[in-house]
Specification:
About 15% of the residues lie in helices and about 35% in strands. The protein contains 2 helices and 6 strands. A 6-stranded antiparallel beta barrel has the order 1-2-3-6-5-4. A hairpin with a 3-residue loop joins strand 2 and strand 3. The N and C termini lie far apart (about 35 Å).
Length: about 130
C-alpha cells in the first residue's frame, strides 16, 4: 500500500550526507526525491530515526535549487536509506517543490554526472 502523499521524481544525483555527531560529510547518491523525503543510495549503517543533514543541488544551476536539509532515517534497505525531511520552513518546502517540478523528463541522465557544489549556499541554514 502506497503511503506517500507527494509524487517522487527519479534521478541519480551525487549529494553530501552529514551525520551531525561526526560533522564530516560523506558522498552518496540521491535516487529519488519528493517534497517530504528521498531515497539515498549508501551503506545502510545508520539506524532508523538517525538524524542527518542532506546537501544537494538540483540540476539547472539556479541558486534556489541548492538545499541543505535536516532529515531522519525512516527506512533501511540493502541498497540505501529512505529519509524524511524535518522541520522545513514553508518557503524552503515551496522552493523544493518548485525545483522538483522543474526537473525535466530524463533528469536521470542530466543529473547523473552532477557534482555537489563546493561550499553550499544553503537555502535553509543549519
Amino acid at each position: 500500500m502506497e503511503r506517500r502523499s507527494y509524487s517522487r521524481k527519479y534521478l541519480r544525483l551525487k549529494i553530501k550526507v552529514e551525520i551531525p555527531a561526526k560533522r564530516t560529510p560523506i558522498g552518496a547518491c540521491l535516487l529519488d526525491i519528493s517534497r517530504k523525503g528521498a531515497f539515498i543510495e549508501m551503506p545502510a549503517l545508520l539506524p532508523a530515526s538517525a538524524p542527518l543533514i542532506v546537501e544537494f543541488r538540483l540540476p539547472d544551476g539556479r541558486p534556489q535549487n541548492i538545499f541543505r536539509l535536516y532529515a531522519k532515517v525512516i527506512r533501511r534497505t540493502a541498497s540505501g536509506i529512505g529519509v524524511s525531511f524535518l522541520n522545513m520552513p514553508a518557503a524552503t518546502s515551496h522552493a523544493l517543490d518548485a525545483a522538483i517540478g522543474r526537473l525535466p523528463p530524463g533528469a536521470e541522465e542530466a543529473a547523473s554526472d552532477s557534482e555537489p557544489t563546493q561550499g553550499f549556499a544553503a537555502v535553509w541554514a543549519v
